[in-house]
């Protein structure tokens, strides 16, 4: 019985200490690096906006191959991001063509096209892609997918193609980070098990 109680307490402690993946809906502003890293994400790419990501974003995607992808922008070296957005990897690179068409995923409008651009904006915003988004959205990122061309914008900061003062950072996460946290029913069952065991001990002790 004592061993069973220890096992139940250990399992319950694991559930309580587990952390869900930080996966907010829509673009987020002024998010700390620690929030991202402690939220289950692993950095997989970082370069200043002056560095190109390749015609097919291959410089990013070769290293960022998790189930989820996060695109973020910040002042170079800062511990806080000006803006970020995240979704399933496949949703973030859904081919929208060399147009201003977007694809809604996890609360953000994403677009991606080889030899054109890649980025996100708020769900209720439209974009004007030629070849990067020149709209007035205050929460937006756009990177060129053109060889030898950098990233165009972070929020309202535009024309960053040659800037080393700002950088793009990518993070990846896996389904395991999501499934690591059991559903509330699992927690409830463990709690009931502990309560039942305690009641049985009290009854047998009388």
Describe the model:
- The strands form 2 sheets. A 5-stranded antiparallel β-sheet has the order 1-4-3-10-2.
- The longest helix is centred in the C-terminal third of the chain and has 22 residues, at 184-205.
- The radius of gyration is 22 Å and the shape is globular.
- Helix 1 (2-17) packs antiparallel against helix 6 (184-205).
- The protein has helices spanning 2-17, 33-38, 58-61, 89-92, 175-179, 184-205; strands at residues 28-32, 42-48, 68-75, 80-88, 103-105, 108-112, 117-122, 140-144, 151-154, 166-173.
- The two termini are 17 Å apart.
- The protein is α+β, with helices and mostly antiparallel strands and 206 residues long.
- It is 28% helix and 29% strand.
- The model is unreliable at 4-17 and 180-190 (pLDDT under 50).
- It has 6 helices and 10 strands.
Q: What's the count of strands?
A: 10
H/E series, N to C? HEHEHEEHEEEEEEHH
User: Which band does the percent of strand residues land in?
Assistant: 25-35%
Unreliable parts: 4-17, 180-190
First-residue to last-residue Cα separation? 17 Å
Report on the biggest sheet. Answer: 5 strands, antiparallel
The global form is globular
- The total of helices stands at 6
What is the SS-derived class? alpha+beta
Average pLDDT figure: 85
| Helix content class | 25-40%
Strand order of the largest sheet: 1-4-3-10-2
Radius of gyration over C-alpha positions, nearest whole angstrom:
22 Å
């Amino acid at each position: 019985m004592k061993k069973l109680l220890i096992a139940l307490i250990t399992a319950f402690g694991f559930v309580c200490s587990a952390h869900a993946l930080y996966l907010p809906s829509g673009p987020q502003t002024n998010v700390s690096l620690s929030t991202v890293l402690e939220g289950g994400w692993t950095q997989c790419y970082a370069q200043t906006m002056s560095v190109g990501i390749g015609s097919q974003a291959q410089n990013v995607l070769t290293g960022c191959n998790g189930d989820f992808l996060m695109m973020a922008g910040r002042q170079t070296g800062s511990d806080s991001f000006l803006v970020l957005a995240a979704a399933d990897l496949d949703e973030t690179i859904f081919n929208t063509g060399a147009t201003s068409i977007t694809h809604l995923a996890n609360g953000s409008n994403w677009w991606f096209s080889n030899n054109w651009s890649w980025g996100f904006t708020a769900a209720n915003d439209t974009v004007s892609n030629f070849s990067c988004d020149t709209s007035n959205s205050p929460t937006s990122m756009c990177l060129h997918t053109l060889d030898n061309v950098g990233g165009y914008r972070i929020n309202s900061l535009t024309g960053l193609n040659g800037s080393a003062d700002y950088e793009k950072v990518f993070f990846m996460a896996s389904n395991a980070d999501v499934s690591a946290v059991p559903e509330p029913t699992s927690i409830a069952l463990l709690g009931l098990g502990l309560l039942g065991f305690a009641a049985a001990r009290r009854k047998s002790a009388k």
